[in-house]
Each structure stands twice: as structure tokens, then as C-alpha cells.
Amino acid sequence: MYVLDKESNKPLYLQLYEAMKKEIVTTLKYGDKLPSIRNVASQYSISKNTAELAYKQLYTEGYIESAPQSGYFVADMPLEQDPPIKTIYMLNTKTSPSIRYDFIPARLTPDAFPLKLWKRLFIKAMGAELDFGAYGDRQGEIGLREEIARYLMQSRGVNCDAGHVIICGGFADSMHILATLLKKQCSHIAIEHPGFPIVRSLFNDYGYTTVPIHVDQDGLVIDELEVSPSNLVYITPSHQYPTGVSMPIRNRIRLLNWSKQIGGIIIEDDYDSELRYQNRPIPSLQGLDKDDRVIYVGTFSKSLSPALRVSYLVLPHRYLDKYKMLFLTRHQRCSVSLSTQKTLELFMAGGHWERHLRKIRTLNRKKHDVMKETLQKTFGSMIEIISEGGGLAILMRPTHTINLNVLRQNALEKGIKLYLASDYYGNDWEAIRMGFGGLSETEIREGVALLKEVWMNTLEKKDQN
Which family does this protein fall into (predicted)? Predict the structure, then answer.
């Protein structure tokens, strides 16, 4: 039995998550079956959504795993976990430096979120005739799906209606749905290299064989895809992650022809498509698809707020029935709260979403330009900028030999947090992702200046050795 304090300020899902994690680490063993989400919700008199959030967090962190139609089980983990956990805790509390300049690649400043407007719309949504005795539409609220479909058709050229839109609880949730949906049809998935590590690890967890396909100046190298064993590919064609390149129309048509010829499936992640600063957003690949082969993935995390945990899928008509059979008939419910969905619907219906995007583009275009100019003036020929013009980060690499891991550690001691490309894409990528979205223009300039000092000190110590 777990003890949940409903009077505590700590959310119930977090209390449940912590209690279950403790039992998994200290008592349970690999393969032990956990009670169903429904049973946990009933036993502790909490909502099913609350229980689902706890289970999702445990799953995300690797403490539990799921089996179709069987439920959740304790995942296989290394033995003797307690000592490492305690050691990490002691190290963190003892040596963690104060971070003054965090160049995280995917963050907006808190003041970029329209908080006052959101509060007003939230109150309005709560005043509407919402049925809080029901779970809501399992596919996502129809009003929000209609607004998303309207926006996508007008701004991204996506061919869809509300019936094709699936509301998901964040990017990982949308990938979980696709990995489940396509499992019987596909055994291999081609992914961009470099590319999103979470996609690779998630599809691996579902038993897929991931096939890395290189990226060049035109995006995914289709020659490699055509000779691969994959009939499923995940791509970011409008603003490739992390290189920032865009796939030209000739390659998009060639990719669509590949999918038609072999009966393949394309997952188009429209990553950072709204945040382009040097030209207009590129129309979607899905809008060119005449054969129902492209699954479109979008999110509100980058342009609005990651805290909302709202993403969406646009499924081709050929997969709608299978989706409903796999998910909607098994009591699978939309994991995004009804209040969040209704508030976002009002936000979009009132024209606030488009105005917000214009504001965010203007704000981050300035930060992008400040980052680019400051890096070039400060480092000169010591660096090469290899990706810029969109998103919330600039990718740069040194033009001379420097140990980036040593540089990162030295920078951390001075209050600078750096993000290396090699952490995500392998040691053949010696580059740094310099995020600017979460910093002010002044902080960007100050942080880069301090980084230059650390950079030069790192080089001097290397020469002395």
C-alpha cells in the first residue's frame, strides 16, 4: 500500500510515482507485474489520468516496461542500484556549480509565454459547459483538432481535417503511438544521422532495428535509404535536426516516389518549421503526398511551452481504422487534460496563436542574430558556424584542435553550461550547440565573452602539457 496525501502541495501523480519507484528499487524484481492503471486509480481514489502520469514517468525513466494486452512490468535494471543513487546525490549537492549562462538548445525565456492571456482563456474555458464527469474525446477534443487542422492547412499546406488529427501528450507520446501502430507492418526504421536520439532509443525499445542514414547539404541521403532494408523512415525535412538543412523539392518528390514504389511510410517531423528567420517556412512534405504515405508530427513545445505537453499527429486515412482499433477500443484516452485542450482551442480560435508565432519569430530572430554576430566577432576564424537561420540554437565547431569535453568541464566551473553534438550523434561530430532562446541578448553577449576566456585558458593548458 502506498500513502498518498491529498492535502499535500506535491501533486498526487508525483507522490504515486515516487512511492512506486521506491518499491521497484527496493522490493520488486525484474518481470514482476504491476497493478493496472485502472486498479490503482480505483484503489487510491484518484483519477485515471493521475495514475497514467505516474506510470508514464516510470516508463520514461526506464523503471517499468509495457507489453501489449498484458500490462506493465518491472523493467530489467542493473543490480545494487542504491549505492550509485546515493553517490550521485552526494556529488550533485557537493559540487554542482551555479549556472549563470545555460546555452540549452531548446528553451524559450519564461516571459515569452503569454501568461496573462492564458489565465484569462483558462478561466473562460472553465466557465464553459465542460463535462468534468467524463474523460473527453479519446482522440482529443474535436474543437482543438479542428483548430489544428485549420492552422495546418493554411500555414503548412497539410491536407487534413479534424478526423485525421490525434492529440498526444508530448513528442515521446506521439512516437509511442506510432511505434505501436506500425509494428506489424515494419521491422526496420531509417533515421537521420545525425538526428534525434530519442527516436532511435524509443523505436529500439519497441523492437525495431534502426538504420542510420547520413545527412548532407540536402538533408537525408536518399541513395542510402533506397538500398537500406527499411520501409519506414523518420525525417525532419523542413529544418533538419541538428544541422538545420532543408530538403529541396526534388528530393522530397524522390522520397515520395520511394515510399510509393515499395509501399513505404514516411514520418515527417515538422521540427522548428515555424522558427525560420531568413526565409518563409517551407511547406510540408505531407502536402505533396498523393498516396497517403506521410504521417505528420507537430508540437507546441518549441513555440508555445514544453510545460503544456501537447503534440499531435496527422494520420493518413489508411491508418485511421487501425489506430482506432488499437487505441480507442482499448480504453486508451488522450493524456492531455481537458482544461489544457479547451484553453489551447480558445487560444487558436481567437487568432492568438498566429500573433504569438509572429512575436516569437521576431524575438528569437534578434537573439539568433546577436548570437551569430557575437560568436563571429569573439572567435573569428577559430570557429565555423555550420547551422543557423532557424530554430533556437546555432551549431558551431572549432577550426583547430581542442578537447571539447575538457572545454565543457572548464566552462561549467565558470558557470557556463555547454551542449556537445557528440553527446547525441557520436564522436565523429565535434561541435557545440549554442542555444539562445532561453537567454536575453545581454546574457548571450556576456556568456560568449566568458566562454572565449575559458576557451583560451583550455588551449593554454593543453600547450603547457
Answer: In the C-terminal section; belongs to the class-I pyridoxal-phosphate-dependent aminotransferase family.
Q: How many other CB atoms are found less than 10 A from the CB of residue 242?
A: 26
Domain boundaries, the chain: 1-96, 101-111+355-464, 115-350
For cell 479519446, name the residue.
138
Question: Could you tell me what percent of the chain has a pLDDT over 70?
Answer: 88
Q: What's the average model confidence in pLDDT over 167-171? A: 92
Q: What was the pLDDT predicted at 78?
A: 43
Residue-averaged pLDDT of the chain: 85
CATH 3.90.1150.10 is right for the domain spanning 101-111+355-464:
yes
Residue-level pLDDT at 291 = 93
The answer to whether the peptide bond before residue 194 is cis (omega within 30 degrees of 0) is yes
Q: What pLDDT does residue 61 have? A: 62
The whole-number average pLDDT for the span 76-86 is: 42
Beta carbons of 75 and 64 less than 8 angstroms apart? yes
pTM of the model: 0.75
Amino acid in the structure at residue 154: Q
Q: For every residue of the chain, which 3-state class applies, written as one string?
A: CCCCCCCCCCCHHHHHHHHHHHHHHHCCCCCCECCCHHHHHHHCCCCHHHHHHHHHHHHHCCCEEEECCCEEEECCCCCCCHHHHHHHHHHHHHHCCCCCEECCCCCCCHHHCCHHHHHHHHHHHHHCCCCCCCCCCCCCCHHHHHHHHHHHHHHHCCCCCHHHEEEECCHHHHHHHHHHHCCCCCCEEEEEECCCHHHHHHHHHCCCEEEEEEEECCEECHHHHHCCCCCEEEECCCCCCCCCCCCCHHHHHHHHHHHHHHCCEEEEECCCCCCECCCCCCCCCHHHCCCCCEEEEEECCCCCCHHHCCEEEECCHHHHHHHHHHCHHHCCCCCCCHHHHHHHHHHHHCCHHHHHHHHHHHHHHHHHHHHHHHHHHHHHHHEEEEECCECCEEEEEECCCCCHHHHHHHHHHCCEECCECHHHHCCCCCCEEEECCCCCHHHHHHHHHHHHHHHHHHHHHHHHC
Q: Is 324 exposed, middle or buried (0-12, 13-18, 19+ CB in 10 A)?
A: middle
Pairing relationship of beta strands 219-220 and 165-168 according to DSSP bridges? unpaired
- pLDDT at position 80 is 37
The model's pLDDT over 308-347, given as tens digits with 9 standing for 90+, comes to 889 999 999 999 999 988 887 665 668 888 889 999 999 9
Residue 8 clears pLDDT 80, i.e. is over it: no
Question: CATH classification of 1-96, choosing from 3.30.70.260, 3.30.420.40, 3.40.50.2300, 1.10.10.10?
Answer: 1.10.10.10
